[in-house]
Design goal:
mainly alpha, MetI-like fold, Peptide/nickel transport system permease protein
């Protein structure tokens, strides 16, 4: 198991280095001078040569390509992502402030999706009939409904009509725990609905496939109860594709938070990225993209390790 885990970590480190290299090359593949684009907002007509030279020096674009790459790589690996053009704040500091908020939102949405989706899909596969049909309809609606539309409906119902929850914003946990939780509920539910529907559909398909295996009928013929066979053998052997779905879904949620954070005025990492793109704050954009890429690779490593735990054959 240790060798398997170390091998997956090694692959993950290689992927992170590849992503860092691609991000670095993206700067040099963009048509035109990045310094000119930053200063002129893309029109190319209002930046003076002296200003362009200063920005090129600030970005290190006046140095040889290999030197730039080494400085970029060493800075990224040590957490030095530069400073924001807008306010001079360290990029790592800005990300460190926003990242926990987004992770909290994504973590709660994932928890809701797994707690609701896995039992829901397993029960639909086991019971069949009208419950399975209703499940198929509801999960199809959940997958098809855009997250920002569902978020707006939540605001309309629970904030404007019923007045039960605040429409949006953010409060630190230390300042007011109750309001912090209230402001987190609707964004998390908006993210979780589509995710839970996907998890339920995958769980249902995996469980149905397992229920028709010969070894399930053999276990029943040996006298084991239906509940014991389902809980100890069918459900556990159905979890591998579900783990894959959850792992991919968490990465998808990191992208979906862009819409949710805008709908609920939630100041997370995605909002920071959108504001930085609008202001052409290149170091912040670069830092946020690196952070999201590292998170996505880390999630995939965790999923691969869980594979080895659930199915020992994967380790070989």
């Amino acid at each position: 198991m240790t060798t398997y885990v170390l091998r997956r970590i090694g692959v993950g480190v290689g992927l992170v280095l590849l992503v860092l290299t691609l991000i670095f090359l993206a700067l040099h593949l963009v048509p035109g001078d990045p310094a000119m684009l930053l200063l002129s907002q893309g029109d190319g007509g209002s930046a003076t040569p002296d200003a362009v030279a200063r920005v090129r020096e600030q970005l290190g674009l006046d140095q040889p390509l290999l030197t730039q790459y080494w400085q970029f790589l060493s800075g990224a690996l040590t957490g030095d992502l530069g400073e924001s053009f807008r306010n001079g704040q360290a990029v790592s500091e800005a990300i460190g402030e926003r990242l926990p908020r987004t992770l909290e939102l994504v973590g709660l949405a994932t928890l809701i999706a797994v707690v609701v989706g896995v039992p829901w899909g397993a029960l639909a596969a086991r019971r069949g009939g009208w419950f399975d049909s209703v499940t198929s309809v509801l999960t199809s609606i959940g997958v098809a409904l855009p997250v920002f539309v569902f978020g707006a409906l939540l605001v309309l119902l629970f904030s404007l009509k019923l007045g039960l929850l605040p429409a949006g914003g953010f409060t630190e946990w230390g300042d007011d725990p109750v309001r912090h939780a209230q402001l987190l509920v609707m964004p998390a539910i908006a993210l979780a609905v589509g995710f839970a529907s996907t998890v339920a559909r995958m769980t249902r398909s995996a469980v149905l496939e397992m229920l028709h295996q010969d070894w399930v009928r053999t276990a029943r013929s040996l006298g084991l109860s239906r509940r014991t066979v389902f809980r100890k053998y069918v459900l556990r052997n159905s979890l591998n594709p579900v783990v894959t779905t959850v792992g991919i879904g968490v990465g998808t949620l990191l992208g979906s938070t862009v819409l949710v954070e805008r709908v609920f005025s939630y100041p997370g990492l995605s909002s920071l990225l959108v504001d930085a793109v609008t202001a052409r704050d290149y170091p912040v954009v670069q830092g946020v993209v690196i952070t999201i890429a590292v998170l996505f690779v880390s999630i995939n490593i965790i999923v691969d390790v869980l594979y080895g735990v659930l199915d020992p054959r994967v380790r070989r």
